[in-house]
Design goal:
Layout (H helix, E strand, L loop, with lengths): L1 H36 L1 H6 L7 H30 L8 H8 L13 H18 L8 H8 L2 H19 L1
Helix pairs in contact: 1-3, 1-7, 3-4, 3-5, 3-6, 4-5
Amino acid sequence: MHSRNTLKKKVIFIGSLEKAISQIIFEIQQIDELFASYQELLEKSKTEEPTLIELTAIGSILHSFYNGIENIFKTIGKNIDGEIPSGNHWHSQLIKQMTEATSKRDPIISEVLKGKLVDYLAFRHFFRNSYSFFLKWNELKKLTDPVITVWLEFKIEISTFVKGQI
């Protein structure tokens, strides 16, 4: 009887793992599409200060970018770790959870990458709770300029994790 329960748990975990990998791949494709759709605006912002409308669009891009990352983290928490933090600080607890090994997986992201993503998490909170006319280019530029590099770093680390699960 014991081995039957163990086998059942393994089958459930494999199903959850397959679901998680499928959702991770989907989110990666969505974030890639986000950056492809707004590539022209992001390139323009490297040489020209954006208008208020462009600034609002860039804020939305950065917000969507971090939402996608967080969706990946929630997928891993739910389907692999079996838990997602709750409470007032669950967003920051979730990103911390992704830097820690568990009995089921290695860390998802490095501490170095976490340090970069925390800035996008903070911006996401600001963007959701503020009016877009409060956006200042000198502050937003600090997140906009490196966002593609941060995304590529994330894709490398998440791909390493996914490949390790297959």
